[in-house]
């Protein structure tokens, strides 16, 4: 073994240890449903993780073949995915999820059910060769106007969120898939989406610890293998750097105070909260220096050029003395440690396949309010979907609503989407004499949507309302159904009620 500037050469590898460590801490995405040549080459050079998104998934069989292809190049590769179930699904990005999301599980408030849902979801991930899930969200949805968390949270009560976060971690990891609890130190009290800008939480330390940090403490006690940082500025913790880049948050609070000994993963570094203020190269160096172990990048950037730039930025930072080589080596060692755990992990014995647990949970999560004048639906209705702009985490590829399931139960059901000023008048004109089912998502956050419901119900008081976001507004309509999420199974559960099943 010969020593070179900035590291030592690994025999037979053609790569010095510094360069390999820099590759090891990256978790890049990539395009397509098969692995590109550049990605396979980087795996041979030291890359230890990849991230999958909806663009990489066509079917369970294709996904299993893809992960087999990755492991043929590197047996212990960490294959991560952003699969929360509910509104944020990659496994079922084109059909909608078979599992309700966190808010529905929090509405039921049965930790055994949450654990069972997480276990079944984990089993399906493991079958496809995925061993790291960027879930669950442990954010306490303290701000009803939150544009990016909402139904991705178990709720607004810290104790409820803590116990369901712990149950989810336990269920997922019992299936052999590492949990990555997010978004530390808590993204719930924000009114800004960090995909677009840098949010700020102005709460004092006592509130932050009692409310936002509590679920992460529970996740650590449950043994979560990884925690993902949030791109948020929390002045009570660090007035200069957002959490992802803050030593005070990642090392002092998370690592030393809370005792998290597992992996620390950044949220996507291409998100504008980081990319537009620091740039992804500078941001990645600062994140590793602050205590992060893995750099997630690839939701929007997914090519070899990005990987090379980030690798070189980390190497240059070490050689310039800005980033201690020991810190980079420690981060890479933590990635390899989790890869080793995941590579030898199998589902715990005694678990049973529970294909219908998602639908069972979705049915239990419904909150149904009927007026005294409600009349059951006897003819195929018209479904008016009042559709907001989807946030980037959810995406616009995944279908939502109740129309498809109602059409199955009541053949002849028709639907159309409406948005903005004039949405109600357009819906009334399209519906004609048919009974209207108005489907909304976070009506309390969208003034146009709330106004559309007012107009619709004034003209057609027999209208049925289905709220598929956070049910913050009071129930209204002849029949009001709150599903606590827009997963496919939530739509099916609501359709069953509407159709009288």
UniProtKB/TrEMBL annotation:
Pfam families: Glyco_hydro_3. Belongs to the glycosyl hydrolase 3 family. This is Glycoside hydrolase family 3 protein. Gene3D superfamilies: Glycoside hydrolase, family 3, N-terminal domain. One of its GO terms (biological process) is peptidoglycan turnover. GO terms for molecular function: hydrolase activity, hydrolyzing O-glycosyl compounds. Coiled coil: none annotated. Residues 46-337 form the Glycoside hydrolase family 3 N-terminal domain.
């Amino acid at each position: 073994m010969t020593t070179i500037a900035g590291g030592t050469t690994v025999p037979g590898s053609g790569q010095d240890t510094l360069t390999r460590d820099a590759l090891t801490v990256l978790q890049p995405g990539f395009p397509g449903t098969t692995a590109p040549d550049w990605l396979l080459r980087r795996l041979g050079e030291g890359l230890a993780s990849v991230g999958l998104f909806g663009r990489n998934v066509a079917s369970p069989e294709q996904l299993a073949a893809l992960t087999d292809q990755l492991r043929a190049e590197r047996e212990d590769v960490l294959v991560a995915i952003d699969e929360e179930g509910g509104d944020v699904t990659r496994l079922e990005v084109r059909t909608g999820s078979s599992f309700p999301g966190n808010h529905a599980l929090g509405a039921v408030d049965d930790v055994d059910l949450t654990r069972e849902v997480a276990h079944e979801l984990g089993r399906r991930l493991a079958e496809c060769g995925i061993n790291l899930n960027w879930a669950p969200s442990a954010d306490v949805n303290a701000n009803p106007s939150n544009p990016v968390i909402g139904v991705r949270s178990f709720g607004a009560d810290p104790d409820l969120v803590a116990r369901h976060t712990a149950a989810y971690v336990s269920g997922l990891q019992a299936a052999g898939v590492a949990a990555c609890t997010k978004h530390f130190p808590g993204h719930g009290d924000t009114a800004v989406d960090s995909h677009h800008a840098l949010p700020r939480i102005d709460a004092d330390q006592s509130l932050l610890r009692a409310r936002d940090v509590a679920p992460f403490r529970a996740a650590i006690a449950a043994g979560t293998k990884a925690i993902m940082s949030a791109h948020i500025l929390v002045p009570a913790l660090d007035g200069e750097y957002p959490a992802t880049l803050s030593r005070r948050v990642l090392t002092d609070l998370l690592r030393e105070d809370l005792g998290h000994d597992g992996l620390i993963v950044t949220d996507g570094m291409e998100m504008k909260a980081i990319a537009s203020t620091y740039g992804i190269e500078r941001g990645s160096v600062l994140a590793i220096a602050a205590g992060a172990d893995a750099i997630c990048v690839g939701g929007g950037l997914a090519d070899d050029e990005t990987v090379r730039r980030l690798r070189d930025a980390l190497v240059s930072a070490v050689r310039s003395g800005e980033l201690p080589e020991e810190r980079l080596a420690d981060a890479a060692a933590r990635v390899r440690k989790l890869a080793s755990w995941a590579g030898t992990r199998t589902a715990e014995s005694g678990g049973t396949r529970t294909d219908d647990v998602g639908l069972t949970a979705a049915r239990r999560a419904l909150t149904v309010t009927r007026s005294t004048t409600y009349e059951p639906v006897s003819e195929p209705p018209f479904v008016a979907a009042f559709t907001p702009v989807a946030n980037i985490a959810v995406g616009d590829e995944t279908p939502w609503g109740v129309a498809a399931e109602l059409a199955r139960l009541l053949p002849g059901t028709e639907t159309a989407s409406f948005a903005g000023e004039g949405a109600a008048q357009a819906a009334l004109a399209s519906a004609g004499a048919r009974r209207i089912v108005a489907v909304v998502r976070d009506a309390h956050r969208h003034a146009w949507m709330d106004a559309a419901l007012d107009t619709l119900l004034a003209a057609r008081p027999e209208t049925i309302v289905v709220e598929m976001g956070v049910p913050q507004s009071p129930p209204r309509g002849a029949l009001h159904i709150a599903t606590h999420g827009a997963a496919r199974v939530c739509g099916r559960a609501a359709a069953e009620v509407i159709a009288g099943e």
